[in-house]
UniProtKB/TrEMBL annotation:
Naturally occurring in which organism (per UniProt): Colletotrichum tofieldiae
One Pfam family recorded for the sequence: Arv1
Coiled coil: none
Residues that span the membrane, as ranges: 84-103, 131-153
Descriptive protein name: Protein ARV
Family the entry assigns: Belongs to the ARV1 family.
Lineage, top ranks: Eukaryota, Fungi, Dikarya, Ascomycota, Pezizomycotina
Length: 288
């Protein structure tokens, strides 16, 4: 059932379409529904294009998340929308490229004797084999991230549910949808390929943006506090880091410190910076 993106009040319809709506000479003839609870339009994004949606996603506006998660992408039977599947594949391919490039830079041999000590037998394999390795690495890391958060939110054995911290959420695919939508800022590195993505400030900023979006998406979908949403994001980051390190260790790359923004160090710093920013903002607001 759709909701008002301003006050989250359930509504029957988001708009009313008149019989001559296809007549271009008379305009679109679609009237947005006004929420009886708050008096605002139930969903103003119905008439907005994708560019506006993406900008508001970057700005972490709660209304756009409610539009996407509750009024657009959420299916009655908790199926994945086809656009979410395509987005997930695209994000995975971006992770493969960025992780591969970053690990190669971190494991460049300093001398002829070190060659092979860093990358092991991986560099002796074909390009296809190397690509498959990084594809498996990123796929398993991403799967661990999603499955750990799905377990914490939807499993009957979730410690959060047993402690009555978070009610059990019966739509696990919607949780993954929220995580994928909020990770869309990972697509920014395609622009940074031109403008030196390996600049540390750029990587940190991207990590902060992804983590902040993940926390906000979980908070809106689960209707929980920022503390619980941050705990869920931290749990996912830990699982992702552990699986990634295990795969790297098995491949003889245990000396690699991180796998980009998927490392627990980067995610931890990003989470801490986000909390400090919220604390400073709250202090300034209280001071007037």
């Amino acid at each position: 059932m759709p909701i008002c993106i301003e006050c989250r009040h359930p509504v029957k319809t988001l708009w009313t379409k008149y019989s001559n709506a296809d007549d271009k000479s008379s305009g679109h003839n679609i009237r947005l529904t006004v929420c009886r609870n708050c008096g605002h339009f139930c969903d103003k994004y119905v008439e907005h294009d994708f560019v506006v949606l993406f900008i508001d996603l970057v700005l972490i506006k709660p209304q756009v998340y409610r539009h996407l998660l509750h009024n657009t992408l959420m299916k009655d039977d908790d199926r994945f929308d086809s656009s979410i599947v395509r987005l997930g594949v695209l994000l995975l391919l971006f992770d493969v490229y960025l992780t591969w490039a970053r690990i190669e830079k971190q494991t460049v041999p300093t001398s002829a004797q070190d060659e092979g000590a860093n990358l092991g037998s991986l560099t002796q394999q074909s390009i296809v084999s190397q690509y498959l390795f990084f594809l498996i690495l990123c796929a398993l890391s991403t799967l661990a991230f999603h499955m750990s958060i799905r377990f914490m939110t939807s499993s009957v054995f979730s410690p959060l549910g047993m402690l009555n911290i978070l009610p059990r959420y019966s739509r696990p695919n919607s949780v993954s949808t929220a995580l994928l939508v909020s990770s869309s800022t990972k697509l920014f590195p395609i622009l940074m390929v031109i403008w030196q993505y390996d600049v540390p400030a750029a990587a940190r900023s991207l990590g902060w943006a992804v983590v902040a979006n993940n926390v906000e998406a979980l908070r809106i979908l689960l209707d929980c506090g920022y503390g619980v949403a941050t705990l869920l994001a931290t749990t996912g980051a830990l699982a992702r880091w552990a699986v990634g390190r295990s795969v790297l260790w098995a491949a003889g790359l245990d000396g690699v410190d991180s796998i980009g923004e998927t490392s627990i160090a980067a995610d931890g710093k990003a989470l801490w910076a986000l909390l400090m920013y919220v604390r400073e903002w709250a202090s300034d607001l209280a001071a007037g």
